[in-house]
Amino acid sequence: MLAGVLWKSRGGNWYVLAAGSEQFTSVTTSGGVEGTAQGNLLAVRARAGAQADLDGQVESGARVGALR
């Protein structure tokens, strides 16, 4: 399972935050926000109202999209 959210910090900065189950070896965001993180957690600076597409790679090498 992989899910994410657009989040505003107390300091006023926006981020795409995503988390996947333990099987994820990397998480990627594309579209309006670009970034990749190794492991099952991702935090990438974004703009207010940004639209991001999430997917990730699992241990088998397959790519898996986020919940909708």
Structure description:
The protein has 68 residues and is mainly beta. It has one domain. Helix content is 0%, strand content 62%. It has no helices and seven strands. A four-stranded antiparallel beta sheet has the order 4-3-6-7, with no helix packed on it. β1 and β2 (14-20) form a beta hairpin. It is elongated, with a radius of gyration of 12 Å.
Shape: elongated
Alpha carbon gap, first and last residue = 11 Å
Number of domains: 1
Strand content: over 45%
Question: What is the residue-averaged pLDDT?
Answer: 96
Report the count of strand segments: 7
The largest beta-sheet arranges its strands as 4-3-6-7
SSE order: EEEEEEE
Largest sheet, strands/sense/barrel: 4 strands, antiparallel
- How many helices? The count is 0
Unreliable residue stretches: none
Structural class: mainly beta
Q: Into which percent range does the helicity of residues fall? A: under 10%
**Rounded radius of gyration (Å):** 12 Å
Features:
68 residues, mainly beta, four-stranded antiparallel sheet, three-stranded antiparallel sheet
Any chance you could write out the topology, listing elements then pairs?
Elements: E1 2-8, E2 14-20, E3 24-31, E4 35-38, E5 41-46, E6 52-58, E7 63-65
